[in-house]
Amino acid sequence: MEAQSSHELVMARKRRREGSNGETEEGERLGKIPRYTVGLKNPAPFADELEPADNKPYERVTMEEAKKGTPLNRPVRVYADGIFDVFHSGHARALMQAKRLFPNSHLIVGVCSDELTHKYKGFTVMNEDERYDAVRHCRYVDEVVRNAPWTLTPEFLAKHRIDFVAHDDYPYSSAGSDDVYKHIKEAGMFAPTQRTEGISTSDIITRIVRDYDVYVRRNLQRGYTAKELNVSFINEKKYHLQERVDKVKRKVRDVEEKSKEFVQKVEEKSIDLIQKWEEKSREFIGNFLQMFGPEGALKHMLKEGKGRMLQAISPRHSPDSSPTREERSPSPTFRLPFFSKTSPPPSPPHHSGARGYLISEDDDEDEDGDDDDNN
Fold this sequence. Notes:
This protein has helices spanning about 1-15, 65-70, 90-100, 115-120, 130-135, 155-160, 180-185, 200-210, 210-220, 235-290, 295-315, 360-375; strands at about 15-20, 25-30, 75-80, 105-110, 145, 165-170, 190-195. The chain is α/β, with parallel strands linked by helices. A 5-stranded parallel sheet has the order 5-4-3-6-7. It has a two-stranded antiparallel ribbon with strand order 1-2. Helix 9 packs across helix 10.
């Protein structure tokens, strides 16, 4: 019941739609699922290990009562049987559908023995004990019947108080009958389920047979002997040789991949170097033109140096506005002592050689010098 209530909670938190093959498709999520264990904590018990049921007469429930919901102390007992060899998700989905047929159900799973299976169907990969154990660890199973019968008898149904039998609706011909579930369907006890397409025990075995050499080589590599794998001496050597050839191929492939990676890295590095070289070359050319170009700094420096050299070689001329000797202020004059006050003012000097003339202080000094020399 704990699993049933948990399942109802999960269904309430999700919007689901039942598919044609029994699979559920998730719709829009309404919220996250809380973290707690939904399934059972222990494997399902075997039917022959349970205590016998009470002595009350066995009364089956109808389909309407089962779908409507039975009391908690009276779950609908659903039976599903099979071989369950190489237990896979298709088996688990079929049992899930059987468990979910009714709101309150108790799922009983019957597993046929090796003797019956080898007689009516063929050799199995797993033995009966392995198949029993695989089924009882499925979360949807409440009870497991070991050595289940190939055909369901009224005595078997009454012994296990079975209300309905769940199986896919395809006719299952075996044991000299066109459909072993025909009398169950006529009695109104059959509840159909849907197969999961694309997965079955036969499909898995077909894959193994198809890739037989691959699996044999893998197991030989893992340490299994040729005797354990039922492989002849010649085939063993052939598989070892193929393994060595494959190793060489893998090494060559690895070398090719590494060389491709190396070449790719070299190309990336070369592209980076070329880009950096182009950037540096542009920068170098720009700096060169800035220094040595027509309007570069070097030309301005040469012009400035040339101007300084010319200025040092030829100094500046005197300004044109400087006064001449004639325009300078005259030196103070004085008359010679032999000129009296009554004498007429001397006339300006002429080329005719007049004796009276003005003498500057410089001329006076010259005359004094001459007098000294004469004395």
